[in-house]
Specification:
Layout (H helix, E strand, L loop, with lengths): L1 E7 L4 E8 L6 E4 L9 H14 L1 E4 L6 H9 L21 E4 L30 E10 L7 E5 H7 L2 H7 L3 E4 L1 H7 L7 H6 L3 E4 L1 E3 L6 E3 L5 E4 L4 H15 L5 E4 L6 E5 L3 E5 L11 E8 L5
Parallel strand pairs: 3-4
Antiparallel strand pairs: 1-2, 2-3, 4-14, 5-16, 6-14, 6-16, 7-13, 7-15, 8-9, 8-12, 10-11
The protein binds fe (ii) ion (FE2).
């Protein structure tokens, strides 16, 4: 499939090509320079491709942090992160995703390991994320991929009895639960106040496609109105089902790539499958706010 759009690359209008890459999601978008401005028709074509393929890979992008912010803001409001840097300060617009210690050396035990667990970004927000955008700066020679699981396909594959059981159920998501579920340092009182628990439907409707999708992950604590243990067991049962290899795509990075994915219907996690104390994995991350799940 190919999609053409009017891209102002400084040398006139050029097309971009959408080439599917994964068995269950993913497409490479070639012919777009994300550091240059582009018109709304191109922005809409990128969103169409995101709705169709969920993970978009833009190769060979020379993108400053400022240009990444400008690209991100074409799709909506930027999100800030509740986590803090080593110096206790907020990350700012561009969050550094890395396995580096405070001295800048690679480590097996980075300060936060939440990204090694299946989650959908910012589901602990009242209005969670539409998309996360990562720009690969330094990538280990082998491994260090990002795994994605397609919750739309998983929902569609659920037995009918389970679809009936979870219809109308809502899960509680919170930063505090996320920290606990991923064996991280507990949320601080300040963070708990900043990000109080929120409730979202466990089956949401994708606003771009109208398809139903599961909406679970390690930011959840329990199911509203259900005994905590029973609800947690149900959430983990759904998470296990949704992350079966048949719903997965693993992206192996190349430096310079930008990947943009759809948090409304995908889970993701980083693969800790490289020599983390030897090699650096560094990506620049920006997040676009979405809409309230329904
Ligand atoms: Fe994430």
């Amino acid at each position: 499939m190919s999609v053409t759009g009017a891209i102002d690359g400084g040398a006139g209008t050029v097309p971009f090509i959408v080439t599917p890459v994964g068995r269950v999601m993913g497409a490479e978008i070639s012919g777009v320079d994300l550091s240059k401005p582009f018109d709304d028709a191109v922005r809409d074509a990128i969103l169409d491709a995101l709705n169709a393929h969920q993970v978009l890979i833009f190769p060979d992008q020379d993108l400053s942090k400022e240009a990444q912010v400008a690209f991100t803001m074409r799709f909506g409001e930027m999100e800030q992160h509740v986590a803090r840097n080593y110096d206790g300060k907020t990350f700012g617009d561009v969050h550094l995703v890395s396995n580096l210690d405070p001295e800048g050396n690679p480590t097996k035990t980075p300060r936060s390991s939440g990204n090694f667990f299946w989650h959908t970004d910012k589901s602990y927000h009242e209005i969670p994320s539409l998309s996360t955008i990562l720009h690969a700066i330094t990538i280990p020679p082998q491994g260090g991929g990002t795994q994605f699981a397609n919750m739309q396909l998983a929902y569609e594959a659920l037995p009918e009895e389970m679809k009936e059981k979870i219809a109308g159920l809502r899960a509680v998501h919170s930063w505090e639960a996320s920290r606990n579920n991923t064996f991280n340092r507990p949320a601080t009182e300040e963070q708990k106040k900043e990000r109080p628990p929120v409730v979202h439907p466990m089956v949401r409707t994708h606003p771009g496609t109208g398809r139903k999708t599961l909406y679970v992950g390690t930011h959840t604590s329990h199911v509203e109105g259900m005994p905590v243990g029973e609800g947690r067991a149900l959430l983990y049962q759904l998470l296990d089902f949704a992350t079966h290899p048949r719903f997965q795509y693993t992206h192996y990075w190349k430096e310079g790539q930008v990947v943009m994915w759809d948090n409304r219907c995908l889970l993701h996690r980083a693969a800790a499958d490289f020599e983390m104390d030897k090699y650096t994995r560094l990506l620049h991350r920006t997040v676009v706010r979405g809409t309230k799940p329904y």
